[in-house]
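Next up, a chain.

===
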Amino acid sequence: MRSQDIQDEMLDEAVAWVVRLRAEPSAEDLEQFHAWRTQSALHERAYREAAGAWAAVGEHATSSQLLGMRRDALDRARRRSRWWERRSVIAAAFLLLVLPAVGISWYQWRTQVDLEYQTARGEQRMIVLPDGSRLSLDAMSRVAVNFTPDVRGITLMAGRASFEVVKDVARPLKVRAGPRTVTAIGTVFTVERESREVRVSLVEGRVAVTSEGRPTKAVEMHPRQQLRMTDSGDMTSRDELDTAQMLAWRDGKLVFDNELLADVAARVNNYAATRVEVEGKARDLRISGVFKAGDTGAFVDAMENDFDLKAVHREDAIALQLE
């Protein structure tokens, strides 16, 4: 699958950049990489081939063939001159050795990838994306994945998803939810699309949030921060959140902190066969607490005992009302 026009020396340089950019590149490193990559179309193609091989290796790293090739690469690395640092030598040698062997996976990676995933009521799902990043979908969620050689694109159409992003400075991951776009390089974060707002929670790393049709500067988030942005443009921020609580939904726990009961019930309903409906002024109550996903009975009992609400059991739903 490798282009015949790309010389071995250029490919060596491309592999070196792949390894270097997945460490902690400095501003000077990024400038040098940009200068190298834009020298010619061949430099661009060499980098894409090396980056594609890296992604393909990540998908099949435990195969017996690649494990054997890795051992060969270690021997090769020991005979080479120092290149940045020893672990970079080993990684680069391994990548150069396996580059010709991952043609099919590389071809799939370098062409456009269009996939769609969704979950049903009460279902959660973890997906490994083509670049090795991990996507966790909450119940009643839907995403579209559109990867190109330049951008890793995801559209969250409904529900909630968390992302553990493989670092690639030259190929950011962009998550679009309504009028908002979250851009990440290597990080862990959650995006939630509700009927009237988008919520972004950053666990680690860094992301930038932009708004469609608005010339305002991107909002750069820091770890343990959450942004809530309505479609009309209002924005609120919360800092120093508990990271375990931010991802508690992946362990089947629903955590609410001063949220409208109507919104809380909507989330509870994503996991339960029997719907919870909130009527009248009860919709405006603010609720805090931790509940087990799918345990509608325990949730309704808590609303009656702790919040003085009345539960009216109907044939197809449970209605919560103020006494």
Q: What stands out?
A: The chain has three domains: 8-109, 112-242, 252-322. The longest strand covers residues 152-164. Confidence is low (pLDDT under 50) at residues 58-90, 100-110. The domain at 112-242 is CATH 2.60.120.1440 (Jelly Rolls).
